[in-house]
Write a structure and sequence with these properties.
Blueprint lengths: L2 H23 L4 H6 L28 H4 L3 E6 L8 E6 L4 E4 L6 E9 L2 E12 L2 E9 L5 E5 L8 E8 L4 E12 L12 E12 L5 E6 L29 E6 L6 E5 L4 E5 L6 E5 L7 E2 L16 E5 L19 E8 L14 E8 L7 E8 L23
Parallel strand pairs: 16-20
Antiparallel strand pairs: 1-2, 2-3, 4-5, 5-6, 6-7, 8-9, 9-10, 10-11, 12-13, 13-14, 14-15, 17-18, 18-19, 19-20
InterPro entries: Arylsulfate_ST, ASST-like, Quinoprotein_ADH-like_sf
Protein name: ASST-domain-containing protein
Organism: Cryoendolithus antarcticus
Length: about 400
């Protein structure tokens, strides 16, 4: 027996025998042991009545008053998941529903369509950091009521965004490889280089009619990007992704669209009437004065690689956070997940954060942005990809 084997066998015995036994005797140890892969790369739940083996959630912290109700929606995929697809769990982690008939799925949500609750998600082929697929709407019996596709030629639905509106329309994102001028970006890129344009569409769910479309290339110069992609732009299958749209939200009052661009570090308000960029928060073209630059919650405009920018109803915020008064025309509350990380070629912060911002645009000459609240993970998580912030209604028991 080799020396390496003599060293490895005791470690395996501890990892696979001793630690699971300790967790069985002391269940509070199961959560940290799961992070150590004691139960495998992806611990699974098995059933006698079903072949599905969805991942077992790892509940890190529990509060009986705040966490006992509601459901958790999740979409699992990746090489460690044998049955990828959308899933619903109880708040305590028990499986309610799972489907693998759609293949790789993402962005599972509870939304409204035809005045009733529906489940929506994207399913298709993941292509690096975007996707090519369709969107699905399921009723309360988990039956497919509508499959939604992007309008136009050879375009495909992207995995980042699909939201329904009270008018029974849908807003979705599209990644489209096309030609643009990158001659000012060096690395021998020319006037006819390959780029990945970011688009979003709003379509009528009943008729499939295209109601609105916006293209980032129409308003944002690729030179404004912060993303380093030295090998992209030279071939159709490796377009330079200068913008990278990852969320769109529609304001319930004005009908304007809030667009998050990961690679330009910006949130932009797009006119719902003519597609004009009304203002830009963050990035190279920032229009706001930062009132929170030295505050404890951090800067309101120096977010980077962010995701999931949403309008927030001021009524959902705790009273102590509504000291400014109710939302009025020209004043916006916005939430986002500030990743602060993109990869080894970029400067990272110590951890990611969730943000709630207040944006005052009533005076176009002196628009201001400030942090209302900042959230950080218990573990100081630094997420290089994806992430979200969800503002929940106050619990009646708290």
């Amino acid at each position: 027996m080799s020396l390496a084997t003599l060293l490895i066998l005791p470690l395996l015995s501890i990892h696979q025998l001793l630690l699971p036994t300790l967790a069985y005797l002391h269940p509070t140890l199961r959560s940290p042991f799961q992070d150590l892969a004691v139960y495998g790369l992806c611990p699974k739940t098995t059933f006698h009545s079903s072949p599905h083996t969805p991942p077992t959630p790892n509940i890190v912290r529990w509060n009986d008053a705040a966490c006992s109700s509601g459901s958790i929606l999740a979409s699992f995929n990746g090489p460690s998941v044998p049955h990828p697809g959308p899933s619903i769990f109880t708040a305590s982690g028990e499986l309610v529903w799972h489907s693998n008939e759609y293949g790789v799925a993402m962005n599972l949500r509870l939304q409204t369509y035809n005045n009733g609750p529906v489940l929506t998600f994207w399913a298709g082929e993941k292509a690096a950091t975007s996707g090519k697929g369709s969107y699905y709407i399921l009723n309360e019996r988990y039956e497919l009521v509508r499959k939604v596709d992007v309008v136009g030629g050879e375009l495909f639905g992207d995995l980042h965004e699909f939201i329904t509106t009270p008018e029974d329309t849908a807003i979705l994102t599209v990644y489209n490889t096309t030609i643009a001028d990158l001659s000012g970006m060096g690395l021998a890129r020319g006037k006819e280089s390959w780029v990945t344009d970011s688009l979003f569409q709003e379509i009528d769910l009943e008729s499939g009619e295209l109601l609105f479309q916006w293209s980032a290339l129409d308003d944002f110069d690729p030179k404004e990007t912060y993303m380093g992609q030295p090998l992209s732009g030279f071939a159709e299958d490796s377009g330079f992704d200068s913008f990278h749209i990852n969320s769109v939200d529609k304001h319930p009052g004005s009908g304007d669209y809030l667009v998050s661009s990961r690679h330009t570090h910006t949130l932009s308000l797009i006119s719902g009437e003519d597609g004009e960029v009304l203002w830009v928060l963050g990035g190279a073209g920032n229009d706001f004065e930062d009132l929170s630059l030295e505050a404890e919650g951090g800067s309101a405009i120096e977010f980077r690689w962010q995701h999931d920018a949403r309008f927030v109803d001021a009524a959902l915020l705790p009273i102590k956070l509504r000291e400014y008064g109710d939302e009025e025309e020209g004043v916006y509350y916005v939430s986002l997940f500030d990743n602060q990380k993109a990869g080894p070629l970029h400067r990272d912060a110590e951890q990611s954060r969730g943000l709630i911002l207040r944006l005052d645009t009533r005076d176009e000459a002196s628009m201001t942005a400030e942090v209302v609240q900042s959230f950080t993970s218990t573990y100081g998580t630094l997420a290089g990809s994806q992430g979200s912030v969800q503002i929940l209604p106050p619990s009646p028991s708290l």
